[in-house]
Amino acid sequence: MSSISISHIHPRSLKLLKSSNVHRVLSFPQIRIKRPTICCTKLTPWEPSPVTYAPTETAGDNLLKKTTNIFETLNSENTAEVPETSTEKVTDTSNSPVVQLQFLKWPMWLLGPSLLLGTGMVPTLWLPISSIFLGPNIASLLSLVGLDCIFNLGATLFLLMADSCARPKHPTQASKSKAPFTYQFWNIVANVTGFIIPLVMLYGSQKGFLQPQLSSISFAVLLGPYLLLLSVQLLTEMLTWHWQSPVWLVTPVVYESYRVLQLMRGLKLGAELTAPAWVMHTLRGLVSWWVLILGIQLMRVAWFAGFTARARARQHQSSPAADG
Question: Which residues fall in a coiled-coil region (predicted)?
Fold first, then answer.
């Protein structure tokens, strides 16, 4: 039982009681209400789920330390912010070498063609044939093969530089370029035809079908370097197809341009060797054949440029539609 004291004050005007303050004690019984406990395992949708935290042995030691702020005991190294900052640093450091490599690629646009010009065209056009050609013998054959080997080295370096320039700026992007099957098939047909014509000419001369006959050493001097460089071209094209290099479209243009000059050199050497008329006509036919093939290759380059332009236009048209 609890008691409550209430002071009751009478005004002076009434003067009914002599005492001004009268204390009355009122006692009210205390009512005790027992609240029943309700056990419920399911939570309502608007109630948050209880948070349980089970500290480990190492974490418990850190939480029990006397610090001004309890959050100071938390170790920031275990948070997820560390991988984010580390990845940002990695991306920054990985992008900086890419930018530096782009600056190194710019001189290749001039260095590659200059190297191709110096190793291929200058020796063939300005070097006098009389200084390296001593007649139909092994020394003359080796001299001509040496000139073509110098060109092959320059062409290989040029293709490597072109492949480096064709690579995307970001290494994560795909840089593979697969040549179509029809392109590979017709290139092989053109190269095999260029092989068959000289071999048929040699076979007809050895069997006596073509008169007057042409000696083996004269044939090697006139068409030996041609066959050797053609085999190198075929091997290089097959490697670019296998590696899916972006230079698969440029490789035949490089070698076929030099092949025209190589056959024109053969025509000059044929005049000095007093080669038969059918040999000279065959060489002129080979020059015409490779000029035709070179024109087809340039048409393919134009087609590929138009194809990529249309593909980019479709990509730009589809990207705003996807964003909308």
Answer: none
